[in-house]
From TrEMBL:
UniProt xrefs under Gene3D superfamilies: 3.40.50.12370, Spore Coat Polysaccharide Biosynthesis Protein SpsA, Chain A
Annotated catalysed reactions: (2R)-3-phosphoglycerate + UDP-alpha-D-glucose = (2R)-2-O-(alpha-D-glucopyranosyl)-3-phospho-glycerate + UDP + H(+); an NDP-alpha-D-glucose + (2R)-3-phosphoglycerate = (2R)-2-O-(alpha-D-glucopyranosyl)-3-phospho-glycerate + a ribonucleoside 5'-diphosphate + H(+)
Pfam families with a match to the protein in the record: Glycos_transf_2
GO molecular function: glycosyltransferase activity
Keyword flag Glycosyltransferase: yes
EC category name: transferase
Domain Glycosyltransferase 2-like: 339-434
Organism expressing this protein natively: Ardenticatena maritima
Domain of life of the organism encoding this protein: Bacteria
EC number annotated for this UniProt entry: 2.4.1.266
InterPro entries assigned: Glyco_trans_2-like, Glycosyltransferase_2, Nucleotide-diphossugar_trans
SUPFAM superfamilies named in the record: Adenine nucleotide alpha hydrolases-like, Nucleotide-diphospho-sugar transferases
Cofactors, names only: Mg(2+)
Record-given protein name: Glucosyl-3-phosphoglycerate synthase
Amino acid sequence: MSHTVKHASKQRIERTVHPVLVPLIHNQTPDEWLLRIALAIAKNRRTYVRVIGIVPVENPEALSEATPKVQIARQNLQSLAETYLGEPIQFDLHVRVSHEPWRIIQEIVIAHDISVVVLRWLPGHSNDVYGAHMDELLGLIPCDVIAFSGPPPQEVKNILVPIRGSKESALLIETALALTEALNSRITLLFAEESQSEERDEAIWQEIERSTRGHRLVTRRLRVIGDVVSAVRQIAGEYDLIMVGVAEQRAGSGARRVGAIARGITEAVNTPIILVKTEYRPAHFEEVRTRYDELELPPSPTSVIVDRWFAENTFSSDEFSDIAHLVDLKREQGLTISLGLPALNEEETIGNVITTVRDALMREYPLLDEIVLIDSGSTDYTVEIARDLGIPVYLHSDILPQYGTYRGKGEGLWKSLYVLKGDIIAWIDTDIVNIHPRFVYGIVGPLLLREDIHYVKGFYRRPLRVGEKMQAGGGGRVTELVARPLINLFYPELSGIIQPLSGEYAGRRRVLEQLPFYTGYGVETGLLLSLVEQYGLSSIAQVDLRQRVHHNQPLPALSKMAFAIIQVFIEHLEERNQVRLLSDINRSMKLIQYEGGRYFLEELYISDIRRPPMATLPEYRKAFGLNTTPDEGDEA
Ligand SMILES: O=c1ccn([C@@H]2O[C@H](COP(=O)(O)OP(=O)(O)O[C@H]3O[C@H](CO)[C@@H](O)[C@H](O)[C@H]3O)[C@@H](O)[C@H]2O)c(=O)[nH]1
Ligand SMILES: O=C(O)[C@H](O)COP(=O)(O)O
């Protein structure tokens, strides 16, 4: 799958031709140079360049600690993408973290049928940015490799290409010609032979002459007696760039190594060097590929999966503050975005929520295509305020009345899928006191940036109001005392989600319509559990919305919320383990009340009903143009 933000090229690209991969290692590479080399090859081969970002993490540091670096790397990649508009380059904005970046490169080479990888080589250095030394790396990457070493050249007029007729020669000549064409430079071919008498050498020289004869970019052909490293050392000063084949040697257990000539040249001169290694393609090449394909890596422990997810899928809302850019992304992808506002008696805050979001994200920038209030039966002025502001209002009991109606926020959200029109649906709570447009653009941003993300949750620091005082970080009582402990116990893959109960989230309609919705406060929990079960952790992302201040409910109300959330966990566990744990008796809760110096018990019936996925309703399928009989996959 591609996670493309800018597939900028208007040029025709032969999709069947294997792309060129540039893995940019955070803070390590002269990016522009690698891209120039890759582009020259890609254009020559009528294919495109795929750029990925990798943040290497040193063992034993946890991958999650790289989260801020990933955010910076993602921004760098986006800025780079801007400068390559119109070029055949695909920037993959899923920046990876790894203790062993070579594994990521290997996986992508296989998954995207990459033909050439262009990367950075730091010879003599502990080349651990890839988690493997160059010698190992060449054997681990199952395709051609072009490695750039030395300082990036300022200007390239003359390129020196020592050539020996090894199996690297074809790629070497191809790369040299492509680059020379792109840089408007000239090539000198250098052929060094040990002694003049070798018949084989004569044949190679003839072949070099024949294959490059008449080529306007090859302006000199030098034939010298002696060892090539000394020959290169003598004339290197006249050249801006040297290109050499690594002429791998097979060593011991079949490992590949950078050959002595390539190594000798890199050690002998300070000139920038490009090393070229041709994939070892014996007759049984396909077999080699299959071996890589079947590579069985030990499964990562859940804590590593969570750590990686946390680093790769945690965003900052600041990454999306350029709203004009988000609008561009939305248009490029032909998407529409709806904002649903669930409300029950929010007259104090609803007006400010609507105007703040509408002014910034509809009037100033057309990010949102509609804002709709979904009311749960407010008895205050919530509905009037929204109507006065010109916002469409639906009473949730009036939507799909043939399916009956339940109380609760989740019921409102489920039914809102039927009235909202967008491809992306965002919901935010309407009791937010410190509302800011980032509460919306933050949750929408990752969906516009990465196709592989289907659902984005907001998170924030949560102060708690105690009397007139605000206690920093004391909020989220149900989150911390119920939801997160249960997640860690039973759904540890979700344990990196900072605010599982947050009311600010956005998802793709085609995914949301496949999920069951709980009718009350269990809705957020139910959506997360279903998402991870049906679409996997990697479909979820989270975004930092900084701080959220809302109306804190009293403890008894939170007790009921906690009860509903625990029910959702149990129902999912029942299904997962094929056991029955809940009966009707478990649906009531005795709340302890204390009034006038006495205690008494209040019995409450609390049960979130599970609504089926919207896509199973014929009315919905008709309204949204889905085929009339639900597919098997549409069932809950
Ligand atoms: O029947 C209802 C009840 C509430 N709401 C609205 O839903 C939002 C959140 O309700 P609130 O009572 O403020 O919930 P919190 O105490 O803030 O609970 C947190 O945890 C809940 C359980 O996960 C989430 O539903 C909330 O969004 C999240 O803010 C507000 O805009 C309400 O007006 C409705 O639309 N219908
Ligand atoms: O998310 C939660 O835990 C509940 O909404 C309670 O939040 P509060 O403790 O900030 O009021």
